[in-house]
Design brief:
The protein is of the alpha+beta class. Among the domains are: 3-173, 3-Layer(aba) Sandwich (Glutaredoxin); 347-429, no CATH class; 628-710, 3-Layer(aba) Sandwich (Glutaredoxin), CATH 3.40.30. Helix content is 49%, strand content 11%. It is globular and about 80 Å long. Strand 6 (265-266) and strand 7 (274-275) form a beta hairpin. Helix 15 (398-404) crosses helix 16 and helix 17 runs antiparallel to helix 18 (461-477). The mean pLDDT is 93. The longest helix is centred in the middle third of the chain and has 20 residues, at 409-428. The N and C termini lie far apart (68 Å).
Length: 718
């Protein structure tokens, strides 16, 4: 019986695209919740928990192999209560049980498979399991039958094991608060560690598979700013350049047409063969890094890179009402009538197809620039997924290519632009990968930051409008004004799920970046309100630090504190920076104290293994090296003000917060009110160390005042 002919299970009533993908499985799936847990307790059955997300390649494989298999479904339905969770909707559940899987198996990933007692205590887990014994793994059906037998014949052993692992997990949530103070060596040691891991040939850190790791790159740029360490800066810039040139970057981005952006990670060390799914959070963070790289170097290649990413998001990942979608799949049908999806089918090319679509000279030029070979350029792919196909990467730069074909730079640029446009239009006609069109508050916050920062760096009204539209969408649809709380997910008119710590942290950061770019006080006021609510819901008032879920969430056995800046930064790291920003902007000593206590709580980790929390190290630099404020006052539409704001946007300023003085705003301080009252036209004040300089009305002078060498506490040459 095909899946389309089967009766749907309970997941058909859900909103998550991932859960809906499993709605017609023969498995009697339940969503995470009381109904499933009551069934497990009343029938004394273990819970089989399967966690993944809708654009996950191996999740698709396991569904096709196992969850569509009638024999496997019969075993699951007979002896287990099967629960599906979308990790993007419930990162708190995912984090809890992923910690267990990593601790007991030494690895992790998705799909995640965990067996729980009816009290939700884990006793066995792993990731992908093949349907039959292979790859050195037990077959899924074999495993189910083994657990079924053990549950009947030796249940007490499983329950005892579950009690023991749960106690260990709980001990992790009760991390002993740090008490150490940080000194300058913690920053130098982390930078040295990253230098030791750095791949000087291809960029990035460590071996394949390689992930972008934007939190590390962000730390290195900030560290170089404060210390003058050129090697740290070059590690970050070199990695960005290598990723830009590699196959992990979609090279067919065309303004207003779409394409572009970055895939999730590279399966090889040289960024050539990607895992083709595209995630909003990766692209948001990489766009910020590209904008920062442009501010640091003035090199247009970084501005072009940021524009490419943001154009991709606007064209392919933006809802008509302004919110940003979550992800695009790696898999798609090679042709419209193909029976099975294939990874990378949307993005790869044969040389013959390119020669058919382009004029002969265009084809030669394009293939020379992007490394296209007659037999395919992915011959070293260990899985042989792309035999005969080409993954586009920038093999030669434009100047080299123009010289190779004896063309002027202008003529060559026109030829390559025509070729890229023709190929993108042909690609658009292919079956597209699945789009996960849910809108998450957390990831939208990251992208609001990206558009806001890019709007300042490039003086782009288009980017500022996109940031404002997205922020207003979240406030209109995912903010409960009566409770003062955020919700997490919106999809097709339906909103739900209580906001998690990352929703508050990333959205507050986005609002602060948008306030600095737009000068609209409403975004600052909302950021302050949400920070107050976040402290109430998530902050550990006894020890410091933020839990990842609210105290009144009864669906979790216990809460955890995120202590790792991975693909996404930890809410603790992002919150620490935002607390310092708000403390400076609206004179809130309680916010500064919460930031200090968060750093102190994680001080042991920072001192012993700082590379685990590079984003928090960046936050810790603020009180150590000192911060500055730029106060804009006067007519915000005046030409002087626009020049001053333009000068600020040109400079990379990790230690500097922008404040718009307004004597009538609810968040303003007496000091700012006085500045606003005394400023007759438009001016900027650079403040630091409890003192402010004289008013500045010239953009060039302001730019000089903002140079890294003029920053308080700067330790150039460290």
């Amino acid at each position: 019986m095909s899946s389309s002919e089967r009766k749907s299970n309970l997941l058909a009533k859900e909103t998550s695209p991932y859960l809906l993908q499993h709605a017609c499985n023969p498995v009697e799936w339940y969503p995470w919740g009381a109904l499933a847990f009551e069934k497990a307790r009343s029938e004394e059955k273990p819970v089989f928990l399967s966690v993944g997300y809708s654009t996950c390649h191996w999740c698709h494989v396991m569904e096709r192999e196992s969850f569509e298999n009638d024999a496997i479904a019969e075993a699951l339905n007979r002896s287990f209560v099967s629960v599906k969770v979308d990790r993007e909707e419930r990162p708190d559940i995912d984090r809890l049980y992923m910690t267990y899987v990593q601790a007991t198996t030494g690895g992790g990933g998705w799909p995640m498979s965990v067996w729980l007692t009816p009290e939700l205590k884990p006793f066995f887990g792993g990731t992908y399991f093949p349907p039959k014994d292979r790859y050195g793994k037990p077959g899924f059906l074999t495993l189910l039958l083994s657990i079924e037998r053990a549950w009947k014949e030796d249940r007490q052993r499983l329950l005892s094991a579950a009690d023991g692992t749960t106690e260990q997990l709980e001990s992790l949530t009760r991390q002993i608060p740090g008490t150490a103070t940080l000194d300058e060596t913690v920053f130098h040691h982390a930078a040295k560690t990253f230098a030791e891991l750095f791949d000087s040939s291809d960029g990035g850190f460590g071996n394949a598979p390689k992930f972008p790791q934007p939190s590390i790159l962000d730390f290195l740029l900030a560290y170089a700013y404060y210390t003058g360490n050129e090697h740290a800066r070059e590690m970050a810039l070199f990695t960005l350049r290598k990723m830009d040139s590699g196959g992990i970057h979609d090279h067919l981005g065309i303004e207003n047409l779409g394409g572009g952006g970055f895939a999730r990670y590279s399966t090889d060390e040289r960024w050539h063969v990607p895992h083709f799914e595209k995630m909003l959070y990766d692209n948001a963070q990489l766009a910020v890094l590209a904008a920062h790289a442009y501010q640091i170097t003035g090199e247009h290649r970084y501005a072009d890179l940021a524009d490419d990413i943001l154009n991709y998001v606007l064209c392919d990942m933006t809802d008509s009402r302004g919110g940003f979608y979550s992800a695009e799949d790696a898999d798609s049908f090679p042709e419209k009538k193909s029976p099975e999806k294939k990874e990378g089918a949307f993005y790869t090319w044969s040389r013959q197809e390119i020669e058919t679509l382009l004029d002969p000279l265009e084809a030669d030029i394009f293939c020379f620039v992007y490394g296209v070979e007659a037999d395919g350029n992915a011959l070293d792919d260990p899985h042989l997924e792309f035999t005969g196909q080409n993954i586009l990467y920038r093999k030669h730069d434009m100047q080299q290519a123009a010289e190779q074909f004896s063309m002027t730079q202008e003529a060559f640029s026109d030829a390559i632009a025509n070729a890229r446009e023709k190929l993108l239009k042909a690609r658009i006609a292919r079956p597209r990968p699945h789009l996960d069109d849910k809108i998450l508050t957390s990831w939208n916050g990251l992208m609001i930051s990206a558009f806001s920062k890019a709007s300042s760096a490039f003086r782009s009204q288009r980017y500022l409008d996109a940031a404002k539209k997205a922020a207003d969408f979240i406030l209109d649809n995912l903010y409960d004004a009566k409770k003062g709380r955020l919700l997490r997910r919106y999809r097709k008119g339906t909103r739900g799920i209580e906001g998690k710590a990352d929703d508050y942290a990333f959205f507050i950061q986005g609002l602060l970046d948008l306030y600095e770019a737009s000068s609209e006080n409403r975004y600052l006021n909302m950021a302050a309100q949400l920070m107050e609510k976040q402290l109430e819901l998530f902050f550990d008032s006894e020890s410091g630090g933020f839990y990842n879920a609210v105290a009144d969430d009864t669906s979790l056995p216990f809460r955890m504190k995120e202590d790792y800046d991975g693909a996404e930064p930890s809410p603790n790291s992002v919150n620490t920076i935002s607390l310092y920003r708000l403390a400076d902007m609206i004179d809130r000593d309680d916010f500064r104290e919460a930031a200090d206590r968060t750093i102190t709580f994680f001080s042991k980790t920072l001192n012993e293994n700082g590379r685990q929390l590079p984003c928090m190290l960046k936050a810790a630099m603020l009180p150590f090296f000192g911060s500055r404020q730029i106060i804009f006052a006067g007519n915000r539409q005046h030409e002087i003000m626009k020049n001053l704001q333009g000068a600020t946007g040109k400079v990379y300023l990790p230690d500097t917060f922008i404040i718009h003085a307004d004597e009538h705003d609810e968040c303003t301080t007496p000091f700012l009110s006085e500045i606003a009252r005394l400023t007759k036209e438009s001016a900027a004040y650079v403040c630091g160390g409890n003192t402010c300089g004289l008013p500045v009305t010239d953009g060039e002078k302001l730019e000089k005042l903002l140079s890294p060498a003029a920053a308080p506490g700067n330790k150039k040459g460290a």
